[in-house]
Amino acid sequence: MSVPELDAKETEKLMADHPEWELAREGKAITRTFQFKDFSEAWGFMSRVALLAETQDHHPEWFNVYARVEVTLTTHDAGESGGLSQRDVTLARAIDAIL
Ligand SMILES: C[C@H](O)[C@H](O)[C@H]1CNC2=NC(N)=NC(=O)C2=N1
């Protein structure tokens, strides 16, 4: 199911509202790195994000090593070959609200 991509104005608002995230993959994704006290904290964060992802049916691409979690959000179903959509905005906002 194709999902509308964010336009330039919506992307600009996303980045303004969430300055801790960075644009990636030529504007088709956003990414943020989280640094926690230890693995247990990182794992707790990942568990909460996993529940959000299931609730929103929108899943992160992520990498974890010990206390660091790198999260990348993009919508695989957007446009021709993926891109940013309102789903990424919603999930980024919910992830930021965890902290
Ligand atoms: C069928 C199911 O709704 C889709 O595969 C969902 C699942 N999670 C998803 N997560 C992400 N990041 N992009 C998607 O396009 C996507 N699609």
From TrEMBL:
Keyword Ion transport recorded: no
Listed EC numbers: 4.2.1.96
Family named by the database record: Belongs to the pterin-4-alpha-carbinolamine dehydratase family.
Gene3D superfamilies tied to this protein: Transcriptional coactivator/pterin dehydratase
Signal peptide (from-to): none
Coiled-coil blocks: none
Class of enzymatic activity (EC top level): lyase
InterPro entries, alphabetized: PCD_sf, Pterin_deHydtase
Single Gene Ontology MF annotation: 4-alpha-hydroxytetrahydrobiopterin dehydratase activity
Catalysed reaction, written as an equation: (4aS,6R)-4a-hydroxy-L-erythro-5,6,7,8-tetrahydrobiopterin = (6R)-L-erythro-6,7-dihydrobiopterin + H2O
Entry keyword Cell division: no
NCBIfam families to which the protein is assigned, alphabetical: PRK00823.1-3
Residue ranges crossing the lipid bilayer per the database entry: none
Record key words, sorted: Lyase
Designated name of the protein: Putative pterin-4-alpha-carbinolamine dehydratase
